[in-house]
Amino acid sequence: MGLSRSASPHIVHLAHTTAAGGAELALKRLLDTKPDWEPSLLIPAEEEENVFVGVSTSTGGVRQLSGASRSGALRALGLGTRLMVQAAITRWHPAVRHSDLVVANSTRSAAYGALAVLGTRRPFVVHLRDHISPEALGSVGYRIMTRLVLPRANGVVANSRGTLDTARRFLHDDAVVAVIPSPSGLGRLQQHSRGEGPLRIGMLARLDPWKGQLALLDAFAQAFPDSDAQLDLAGAALFEHAAFADELRAHAKELGIADRVNLLGHVHDIAPLLASWDVAVQYSLRAEPMGQNVLQCLAAGTAVVVADEGGPTEWVRHGHNGLRVTPRDTGALADALRRLADDPALRQRLSAAAVQTPGLLDDAEIAAIHAGVYRDVITLASADRRAAARAGRSTAPSMRTVGASLAALQVPDPQPVVARTP
Fold first, then answer.
1. Spatial contact of 29 and 183, defined as CB atoms under 8 Å apart
2. What predicted TM-score, i.e. pTM, was given to this entire model?
3. What is the predicted pLDDT for the residue at 238?
């Protein structure tokens, strides 16, 4: 194992679902760039929707349950069983056994990926797309990440500085860390002039209660009670949130705005959609780690409004390339929407500055940065193994660590399990 075998390292990417979530779309874009490594993609089972069409994929294992990490004891037991089965299948998969690096694309794939590489010297990288907190991950998910996954990781790629900060204390001192925005298809987006028609406001996010669609409905109704302004909600109801779409329709009817609210479902080609919006809103009800939607709206030159917390604040400067409003305050959001509706010059100024936001990279540029991080992890892990061999010690934990890690998830507050011997 190592770079000496090949100019391009063999990297296995683990994805726990083929549904078109943000993490899955980001991985598809990354692999579509034909990156500077030899990729293999492993998924447990193919869903009805397969975002990875066109990507060479190996399928094997058991379907991973949605939302199990924040459910009751019985479902959590089902989660644990499925993780163990998937970990065993992943561990012995030929692609993994002959890989230079294993990369987990999500918290769920990180859970069974960490189990799969425990007791081996296989370098392991985790993509962090969620804050490491019980609120974001659920109590079981939080324990898995902090007591099993992050202590085992040789490297992490976080989607924002805020996301990385929530994980740092659980990582080894020598773990490679990087903050890299997710591939968001920005190279296919460009600023367009809005045509004639009523003011159009939009939110690009999967339909999920915490993403803030209900709050946006309230703010929109408050800002435009008697108007021809339109509101587009673009995003699918994934991960067992199908009933939420009906809740949104019912709430829009209660507010008297149903005829001006459009639920568009998942939109494959977002460029024409963003070009039709005057204002784009990100208003998640808890701190957003870093939505790809914010970067996409900035790159498209859409005037953006974001909640003043989390990853989006690392990109949006208030009054320069967007507006930041108080989180969880529909009145403040309504005021921002009215301000933009009443001031076309402000919208134009924010739009012009949005496309000039520093750091808006296309997918190939982001893939090149990933390649450097992956190579650093492989090189440092190889050097660590050589140093350990000279010192007569092992860099791989005992397989007893697997049992200890799983046991730690069942007790209230044990010390984190460090999956690496000194």
1. yes
2. 0.86
3. 74
What pLDDT is recorded for position 394?
A: 52
Inter-residue long-range contacts of 409-417, CB under 8 Å, 24+ positions, other chains counted = 409/80, 409/140, 409/143, 409/144, 409/147, 409/148, 414/147, 416/146, 416/147, 416/151, 416/170, 417/147, 417/148, 417/151
- Please give the single-letter amino acid code of residue 73: A
Residues 56 and 23 in one domain: yes
> Facing residues of 256 across strands?
none
Domain count, the chain: 2
* Domain assignment of residue 334, given as a range: 186-354
What are the residue ranges of helices labelled H in 255-320? 270-276, 292-299
Residue 390's pLDDT is what? 74
Q: How many CB atoms lie within 10 A of CB 422?
A: 4
E strands present in 317-370 = 323-325
Instruction: Report the candidate in 406, 379, 383, 404 with the shortest Cα–Cα distance to residue 395.
Output: 383
Judged by DSSP in three states, 204 sits in strand
- At what angle are helices 213-223 and 330-342 packed, to 10 degrees? 50
Read off the tokens for 135: 């609120």
352-374 pLDDT tens trace: 999 999 999 999 999 999 999 99
Residue 417 lies in a domain: no
Closest-CA residue to 178 (of 125, 133, 131, 132): 125
pLDDT beyond 50 at 102: yes
CA dihedral (295, 296, 301, 304) positive or negative: negative
Q: 232 with 223: CB under 8 angstroms?
A: no
Segment 35-46, tens digit of pLDDT: 999 999 999 988
Residue 420, domain member (yes or no): no
User: What CATH number is attached to the domain comprising 370?
Assistant: 3.40.50.2000
Structure tokens at 80: 């644990």
Tokens 């997710």 appear where? 182
